[in-house]
Each structure stands twice: as C-alpha cells, then as structure tokens.
Amino acid sequence: MTLAGKNYSAFTKYFFTAYGDNYGKVIAVESLKDIPFDIKRVYYMYDTTAGVVRGKHAHRNLEQVLICVSGNCKISFEDGRDKKVFMLDKPNEWLYMPKHIWGEQFDFSEGTVLLVLASELYDDSDYIRDYDEFLELVKGKNEN
C-alpha cells in the first residue's frame, strides 16, 4: 500500500508522532494521513489469558493497523513465504497488516490492551481461518 509516496509493508514497524510536555503525551491518528486507509471499525483486546494465541487468520480484503496502547505482546505476520515476529511495547508503535497476511498475537503481558483500526466493517466471509486455504490463496501471488 502506498500513501503520500510512502510504501507500507507488513514486515516493518512504524511509529506515530507523539506530542507532549510535562503534562503527558498525545497521539492523533487520522485516516489516509497517518495510516494507509480509511478507518471503518475500531476494536481492542484486553484481559487476554496467559498462553492464549489470538488471531490465527488472514483477510481477503480487510487491512488493519495494530497498536499496543498498554502492556506488550508479540505479533507474527506471514505471507506464505516469509514470517516475522514483532514485539509491540510502546503506544506510539504500530504494525500495518494488509490483506492476505496470516496474523497471530501472543505472549500478552498482564494489563495489555491491543487496539486495532480496520479498513472495513465486520464481515465473517472476509476471514480466512484455515491455514491451508490461506497458503493456497497466496501461492500464486508469491510465485510471481
């Protein structure tokens, strides 16, 4: 995905600009300015039990930005060929998850809040929950 001449990748960690002073910090996120899509849905995960792995799916069309606003967790992204694991532990860090990326979230610390900004409204048919189906989908894409 390209926005304002910048290419966004699932295998890169990005940073929001934090503004602040002695009173604290604030981060503002604007659609199509700070992230590469129009935000249509916002949700967050919290009180995740130790040892739980979340996600374990890909999307056909949906794009996401993941932000750990409190605590920390690990995020793995896979495109069928490459896999990378990130630690999100600062509220100004974020990951871009384009469509056709298998994502998992795990190793949540106590008190973690993982915020997700999504490009589309919820649509169950957009989810690819079977790993083999995901591999078949991206196979042709990765052969090019």
Topology pattern, helix = H, strand = E: EEEEEEEEEEEEEEH
Q: Which fold name fills CATH's third level, the topology?
A: Jelly Rolls
Q: Number of folding domains?
A: 1
Low-confidence segments, given as residue ranges, are none
The number of helical segments is 1
Strand order of the largest sheet: 3-11-8-13-6
- What CATH architecture would you give? Sandwich
CATH class group? Mainly Beta
Q: Determine the oligomeric state from the structure.
A: single chain
Q: Which class of secondary structure composition applies to the elements?
A: mainly beta
Strand runs, count: 14
Keywords for this entry:
144 residues, mainly beta, Jelly Rolls, 5-stranded antiparallel β-sheet, 1 helix, globular
Task: Report on this structure.
This protein has 144 residues and is mainly β. It has one domain (2-143): Jelly Rolls. Helices cover 9% and strands 43% of the residues. The chain is built from 1 helix and 14 strands, in the order ββββββββββββββα. It has one helix at 131-143; strands at residues 2-3, 6-7, 13-15, 19-21, 24-26, 41-46, 54-59, 64-70, 73-78, 83-88, 93-97, 102-106, 113-118, 127-128. A 5-stranded antiparallel sheet has the order 3-11-8-13-6, with no helix packed on it. It starts with a strand and ends with a helix. The mean pLDDT is 94.
Q: What is the gist of this entry?
A:
The protein has 144 residues and is mostly beta strands. It has one helix at 131-143, and strands at residues 2-3, 6-7, 13-15, 19-21, 24-26, 41-46, 54-59, 64-70, 73-78, 83-88, 93-97, 102-106, 113-118, 127-128. It has one domain: Jelly Rolls (Sandwich), CATH 2.60.120.
